[in-house]
Amino acid sequence: MNRSNAKDRLDRLEQLTAILKSEDALTTKTIAAELNVSERTLFRDIGVLRERGLPIEADKGRGGGIKLHRNWGAGRLSLENQEMIDLLISLAIAESMGPTLFMGNINTVRHKLMASFSPKQKDKIHQLRQRIHIGEQASPDVLQSFSMKKHETNATIETLHTAFLFNQRLSIVYHDFHDQETQREIEAHYLYLGFPVWYLLAWDHLRNDVRIFRYDRIKKADILPQEFTLRPLKDFNAILTKQNVSTL
């Protein structure tokens, strides 16, 4: 094996290790496709990793599931609670946006980050992916009225993200299109991006109905003790169809 081929294999083994650490169970076909190798080559690489002490369980039968032994433990990132919340949501957002100019290696990044998360944190990321949606770019009218002043919004956004992640009800002060201020109690079910404007798809207890709230118009947010059960996205289809979010 020449030096170039040896380096390629070492890189591939590192990628394979990250993939196995980041997921529960994947098929050989899925992993081989991601690594751009044959399943036969994949099983040879698995043999090498086993020799290095990685406890890999592989089933060559139907489906060809591969996973690490359930008692295997990965090293964990040492992060503060808010840092972990921001990282979980940012990772889910990046994946929801799909391939972009500066995120060509998102799969590799995800596998390496996921390898450092606990099983509970991994489950949370999988759930978050389904709750973050990317739409059309904001219209000129929206951009004209859009304003996010960092020093004013950091604490509010942290509160919104925490409530979103842990399914907790929120009390917010909201300024509508006419700059009328109202106090609302809401459940933040989904996030929607009409770049660069973020929206909450929420259940509004004041209106007893689904509503859309622009992030930059939420002036204050407090977490309430009540938790909520996630509503299906179809509950919000009517309001998304009725109103063009990119113009709100």
TrEMBL record:
> Per the record's keyword annotation, is Nucleotide-binding included, yes or no?
no
SUPFAM superfamilies recorded: Winged helix' DNA-binding domain
Pfam families named in the record: HTH_11, WYL
Tell me which domain of life the UniProt entry assigns to the organism this sequence originates from. Answer: Bacteria
Gene3D superfamilies, per database record: Winged helix-like DNA-binding domain superfamily/Winged helix DNA-binding domain (1.10.10.10)
Q: Where is the HTH deoR-type domain?
A: 9-67
Q: Which UniProt keywords apply?
A: Transcription, Transcription regulation
Any one GO molecular-function label of the UniProt entry: DNA-binding transcription factor activity
Q: What is this protein called?
A: HTH domain-containing protein
What high-level taxonomic lineage is stated for the organism?
Answer: Bacteria, Pseudomonadati, Pseudomonadota, Gammaproteobacteria, Oceanospirillales
